[in-house]
Amino acid sequence: MQTIGHFIGGKHVEGTSGRFADVFNPATGEVQAKVALATDAELDAAVANAAAAQPAWAATNPQRRARVMMKFVELLNRDMDKLAEALSREHGKTLPDAKGDVIRGLEVAEFCIGAPHLLKGEYTEGAGPGI
User: What residue segments make up the domains of the chain, in order of their start?
Assistant: First the structure.
């Protein structure tokens, strides 16, 4: 049985509460995994980590953020079938329907890559180092 923990600070973390919830396959009604329920401390750690990471991300220029999105698009394309299978198991969708949802997410990410160009006016502060 697969156990799903937490993702805090860029790392997979096992839950420490000792409490779990069932994850059901909606097509069969069978339990397909257990998900760890977070403690207050685990929730606080996740929120604090995200808050600590936000200023550096906000200070990152738009072109570098777009490169992160490009890598995300690369990973979506690479793992399209795996993501569609996971979505199908999670929501009980057919594989073609689930793949359509992943493709829609891919389209949104591709659009976001162009956001730096859309944000540009006559003057772009912090367009890149030394510019």
Answer: 1-58, 60-119
